[in-house]
Design a protein that fits this description.
The chain is 77% helix and 0% strand. The protein has 3 helices and no strands.
Length: 153
């Protein structure tokens, strides 16, 4: 026998469900973005930089791997939470406790922490690239590619 939910509670649970879906979408996007950065770093940057910046390279690689692990854990948490909210909305699960609020706070804190770590890793990666660019010699264009400027009549 299903007990109907209080309309106010139902609306709040639906809001939590939608918020959970948005978080999951954000985490999936960040996961793809980090995978892109890791592939870019592994294939293009780390081979050229490793000789002179070994410590920076190791820190970035460790940070990228740590972020991916944290994202996988958060993704699993969000999927489990989504399932629980679906059960609450359908009425198949009747118990709502303080755990829901505590879990919500923990998820928000983890997402904020993950985004801050993500930003730091990107800043390290971009700083390394900028340092590489500054040390490289400018590419000299062959004569046939140089722009010729003509006076305007």
């Amino acid at each position: 026998m299903k007990m109907p939910l209080d309309p106010q509670l139902s609306a709040e649970l639906q809001e939590l469900y939608l918020e959970n879906k948005e978080w999951l979408s954000d985490i999936l996007f960040l996961e793809d973005e980090m995978r892109f950065f890791q592939n870019l770093f592994d294939t293009l940057i780390s081979k050229r930089v490793k000789k002179n910046h070994n410590q920076q390279v190791e820190v970035i690689i460790t940070s990228l791997n740590g972020i991916l692990v944290r994202r996988k854990h958060l993704k699993a948490t969000l999927n489990a939470r989504k399932k629980n909210l679906e059960q609450l909305l359908e009425g198949t699960m009747k118990h709502i406790g303080l755990e829901l609020i505590e879990e919500d706070s923990a998820i928000v804190a983890e997402i904020k922490s993950l985004l801050a770590t993500d930003k730091l890793v990107k800043n390290e990666l971009f700083a390394l690239i900028e340092e590489l660019k500054a040390k490289e010699r400018p590419i000299a264009l062959p004569a046939f590619l140089k722009v010729k400027r003509y006076p305007i009549l």
